[in-house]
Amino acid sequence: MIKKEMIAMLLAGGQGSRLGVLTADVAKPAVSFGGKYRIIDFPLSNCINSGIDTVGVLTQYQPLRLNTHIGIGIPWDLDRNNGGVTVLPPYEKSDNSEWYTGTANAIYQNLRYMEQYNPEYVLILSGDHIYKMDYEVMLDFHKENQSDVTIATMPVPMEEASRFGIVVADENKKITEFQEKPEHPSSNLASMGIYIFSWPVLRDALITMKDQNGCDFGKHIIPYCFDNGKRCFAYEFNGYWKDVGTLGSYWEANMELIDLIPEFNLYEEYWKIYTKSDTIEPQYISGEARVERSIVGEASEIYGEVINSVIGPNVYIGKGSVIRDSIIMKDTTIGEGVIMDKSIVAEACQIGNNTVLGCGEEAPNTYKESVYAFGLAVVGEASEIPSGVRIGKNTAIVGKTTPEDYPNGELPSGAVIIKAGDRV
Of 197, 196, 215, nearest to 135 (Cα)? Predict the structure, then answer.
């Protein structure tokens, strides 16, 4: 086995519960983004663009679509005889079968995978952020400072700092204090959940801390390294980075793609985002259709109006329909005369004729107020909505619904419909 300078371990097992119905049947890193991509495409593309050709992808929650999407890594040029991409689900050992219980526990359970490459450095990544980063530049910073642990950081507004791991660093970027989601943060320099470890340091920390309940990088591994005198440095990243962990941030990140000068540009030649693409026919926009400032995927047929929206591949939008400020994922059919404002419709849905989504005044959601917020109407995967119904804001629908599910033909703002057997 050829020794690798740096390998990447990509944590992609998260459920993403704050994305509600979008992650009921699919892991968060496999959620569609930007019309043709899935969220995991971004860290995988960053790896190959940074010259990293060995990536372990740790899956757990609803892994099927993620596994199918990654396959043997061909779209990212990660189909290698030595290295490449390897999907690493929890597996049954001779003495016990153990789920991954924390981010560091997941890495610890794959020590053998890492040992076979005997790397000098290990890059730890999360599979659910939207950004472009050259990890090679971060590695150079790690080497220059003779660092044991380098944490990628970025400044966040002080009022949001308590949501993150926070570092305090001196003028040389050496970390002098680390706080995991502090109530009263000492700085606004937030950890991005991207770490480079010198391999012997990571190996020692994982083995020493292996019995910690839900062993986690922010709570256990980083404090252990810091408290034991390891050289820890903060690499400050100033590019675009978005944690699409809520429906609001997910919607915003999609909408930012269609700005006149997008802050996050999908069209740069020198830093391409790669994805698994189906070989399908081109999009069709009819004579009476109108499309304005939108992304429209391949094989989509547009007969209505699409304004300021992100439309996935193989989506049908019927005559007289008006789609505004919305995200519609692949294989979805929108009938005729549909009015849709600020909505997210997941894959393979059927929306009946003359239906209205995202109407009326806002009201807090009665089921999960913090999840179904931001004024959005959200429809889960493979759902059906009958013709002629009106659906308010801060709403969620999942399953095959019928007219009987809508008293007076309406789902008022703040309400949900969850069909038996469906999860949100």
Answer: 196
Q: What is the pLDDT of residues 360-414, one digit of tens each?
A: 999 999 999 999 999 999 999 999 999 999 999 999 999 999 999 999 999 999 9
Tokens of 66: 């993620």
Task: Tell me, yes or no, if the pTM score tops 0.70.
Answer: yes
Burial of 89 (0-12, 13-18, 19+ CB in 10 A): middle
CB 99 within 8 A of CB 215: no
Phi, psi values for residue 178, rounded to 5°? -130, 125
